[in-house]
Every structure is written in structure tokens, then in C-alpha cells.
Amino acid sequence: MKARYRMEGILDSVPDDVWHTEMSMFSDTHYEQTAIYSAGQRGERSSHILLKRDGVSVGGARVGLYLVPGLKRGLALVRFGPFWRRPDSEISDTYKDVIRALIEEYGGKRKLYLIVRPRPHPDFYPQEAKELQELGLTGNSTTMLDRYFVDVSIDESEQRKSLGKTWRYNLQKGLGNDLDIRIATDPNTIKTFQAIYGEMVLRKNLNYPGVDLPAFIPDLVGLPERMNMQVALADHEGKAIGGVAFSIVGDLAYYVFGASSNKAVELNAGYVLQWHVIRWLHEHSAVRWYELGGPGDPGIRQFKKGLAGKRGSLLAVQEFHFCPDFVARLVVGGLFSLRDVRNRMQRWQRERKPSL
User: Fold this and answer.
1) Per-residue pLDDT averaged across 241-245, rounded?
2) What is the pLDDT of residue 131?
3) Residues 6+ apart with CB under 8 A from 38
4) What is the DSSP annotation of 323-334?
5) Is the separation of the CB atoms in 260 and 200 below 8 Å?
6) What are the start and end residues of each CATH 3.40.630.30 domain in the chain?
7) Can you give the pTM of this predicted structure?
8) Are 327 and 159 in contact (CB under 8 A)?
């Protein structure tokens, strides 16, 4: 099962700026594979592997490590990776080679429980899932990874027809509310978005892994051009009331963060913002798919389903497990139990009404 490509001394030794430059050369990159997202905010250790052939990077992955002290066992988690598709290369056995290297290093040498969560992509995910199974990884279904996609390649008329009926109605109402939409990346725009987001977190009593990630927007804006972030703000009567942080990363566009005030909800600003974003992507990018993230709670699910519409899709995504070590399987089983307890507590906290 050994990979054909040597690591050439590039395990856990690539500086962050070099890592981001290397990532930007691939079509299948994701923010979860940046050093910014793996900076320890989840209470994990970060590892990485970069594979090269003849001095040229052919793939790599950022890996989150959850280790039990003293046992040298635990979990190695690849979120929405590895990356392996360069725009100038044909699809080959590269993906399997990168997966083999991950298995060899994390499942073999380190005796960890390896989980790979492939990057959701309507066109490439089915192929990657098939190859993971061929390499002996076991698929595990979880709706947590399902993703809605909007087809932003279609023109405005077809996009309106694609929208869900209720979504189209709310958009029309929002367009009549005299909202000004601006897209920018200057420091003042970012700070305004972060302020609205912070107020929303307090108002909705939000508490889940990643809720504090908008603090990293200035770093995401500063990534190489093929990965940097944009911020759209909705103004009403001269005051910003809501926003969307989105990006084009490789061959996909992403809805990354959303922020809304009570006024934004009242004026249907979220519908107008997303409409402007998908029109902007149609006019200013070559990507076909705009990923909206997972289904979320019933209200969010209805919003995303209506925006994806008839021409979009909901992609069901599995995560894939590999672990030949018995002790690691026992340890990770315990970690999964603790995670389930944490998730139940966070759902309970979100559902509580904020105290006055």
C-alpha cells in the first residue's frame, strides 16, 4: 500500500505561507486545509503532509490530531481533503497515491485511527469515494457532511426560474426594501461584518465548533488570490444590517459566514445578499458550483434548499475510516462518545431562549 511519491522531508515542516502558496496551485483546495483553520482553535494538534514528484507538489493534506496522553493513540482527521488536482494535469492515480501516503504515515507509523472527509464536489466526490473504498477505507454515512450547491453558471432568467417558490417570493419582497449591496475586502467592511456577526451570536445564543472563525477573516482575505475571501454587506438607510462572507477556492465558490441583525431579517436582506452573490459569481468567475454548506436546522435547510433550487443539488457525503490498530479503535470509540455528549449539550444551549 505504499505511495509512489517520496515525502522528501516535508512532513510537519512546511511554513504556513509556503503551505498556502502550494495549496493555491490546486483546484480542489478548501479553507479547512489551510493553516488558518487548523490553528488549534478546536483543541487539536495540527499535522501536515506534502508530497512531491521531481520537485513539484502533487498533493497534500492538513490533518487534525486528537491524541490520548501516554497511549500514543488517537484520531487523525482529514477535513475536506486531501488536495491533489492541479489545473494543468490530467486525472490519474495521484489521488490513490496521496491516500496511500496518509494511510502509511498516520494509520501505519503512528498507529492512529484515520478518518478522511473528502471535499464535497458534485463532479469529483463520487470518483474519490469509489477510490477510497477500493483502498480499504470504510464509508460511514453522516448528514453532517451533506452539502447544498447552487449552479451559478446559468443566466439570471434561468436562475430565477430555478429558485424555490417561497424563496423567489421572499427575494422579490427584499428587492423592494431599498437595500444597497456592496462587495469589498477593506478593513472597515470586515470590521462591520464582524460586529454584526458578534451581535448575532449573542442574540441567538450560538455555541458550536467554529463559531469564532470569523475572527480570522482578515487572514483569509490575505491568502493567495485563488483562495481569498470577499465580503458582501447590505446597507439600509446608510447603516449596515447584514452580510455574507464568501469565496472562490479552487474550482468551487463557498458561502462561508453569514451575519444578520433583526432589521436584516425583517427586510429579507439575506435573500437579497445571496442573490447578489450568485449573480456576482456568474459574472466574475468561471466556477459552476456555489456551495452553501450543510442543511442545518429546519429554517436554514428551507432557505438553502430554495436557493439551490431546481438546477442545484444536495450532495450526500460520507466520511471514510481506516484503522488496523485495536487500541486506537477503542480510544477513538471513547472520543466519539465524548463528542456525542458535547454535541447534545450544544444543541440544548442553542435551543434555550436567551435570558433577558
Assistant:
1) 98
2) 95
3) 32, 44, 46, 62, 64
4) ---HHHHHHHHH
5) yes
6) 16-144+317-351, 147-315
7) 0.90
8) no
The whole-angstrom separation of Cα 148 and Cα 290 is: 8
3-class secondary structure, 140 = strand
Residues 101 and 7: beta-carbon distance below 8 Å: yes
Radius of gyration of the CA atoms of the chain, in A: 21
Is the pLDDT at 327 greater than 90, yes or no?
no
Q: Are 280 and 152 in contact (CB under 8 A)?
A: no
Question: Comparing 5-14, 118-127, 347-356, which segment has the lowest mean pLDDT?
Answer: 347-356
| Cβ(199)–Cβ(191) below 8 Å | no
Q: What digits encode the pLDDT tens for the residues 278-295? A: 999 999 999 999 999 998
- Average pLDDT value for the chain: 89
- CB burial class (10 A; 0-12, 13-18, 19+) of residue 87? exposed
Grid coordinates in use for 12? 510537519
pLDDT of 338 reads: 60
Q: What is the DSSP string of 53-120?
A: ETTEEEEEEEEEEEEETTTTEEEEEEES--B---TTS---SHHHHHHHHHIIIIIIIS--EEEEEPPP
16-144+317-351 is classed CATH 2.60.200.40: no
Fold of 147-315: Aminopeptidase (3.40.630)
Cell triple for 306: 430554495
Beta-strand pair 289-293/252-260: parallel
Q: pLDDT tier at 1 (50, 70, 90 boundaries)? A: low
Judged by DSSP in three states, 292 sits in strand
Strands 73-79 and 113-117: parallel
| DSSP for 198-236, written as a single string | HHHHHHHT--STTTTGGGGHHHHHTS-TTT-EEEEEEEE
Q: CB within 8 A of 336, min separation 6: which ones?
A: none
